[in-house]
Amino acid sequence: MEEAPEGFCFDNFKRNQFLIDKKVVKEPKVVKTGTTIAGMIFKDGVILGADTRATEGPIVANKNCLKIHYLAPNMYCCGAGTAADCDAVTDMMSRQLEIIRLNTGRECRVVNAATLMTNYLFNYGGYIGAYLIVGGVDCKGSHIVNVEADGSQIWLPFFSTGSGSLAATAILETHYRDDIPVSYLFNANCDS
Fold first, then answer.
1. Is 169 a residue of the active site?
2. What is the pTM of this model?
């Protein structure tokens, strides 16, 4: 019995290239779809980032979509998934956090926002298409939490989600350090 070779097999690539060269099949077009959002903790705070395109499959429906949402003076949120769901959930959470802030006289903690979002989304069992990355600074430090549409949450020093998250996560995993200064974040040269 012959053992399979280790590593990736390029047999299909060679076959596909042969078929394209002989004009048996057309080369598929690369289609960019979906959202990419990311957040990370750095030495003095949190940074969030998102693209600005809203897509419907291969169609760009809006080139200037707001995907970073205000939650409270000390925290913001990036949203991926259904744009209307992300807007509705973050607007509602922002209002609830404002009520808590006014009643207590204190800034809300990130755990409060994450718990409110988790409970709300869990009650809908994943039918609300909001995938959120909450970033903020509170009395316990800087935080990044990913809240999924099913109500689960993950607390990490950096996170990326959406269709471009593989590339974003690769960059974050390669360059992330706990002590990154703010000057490093705005420097185009990531070799240091």
1. no
2. 0.78
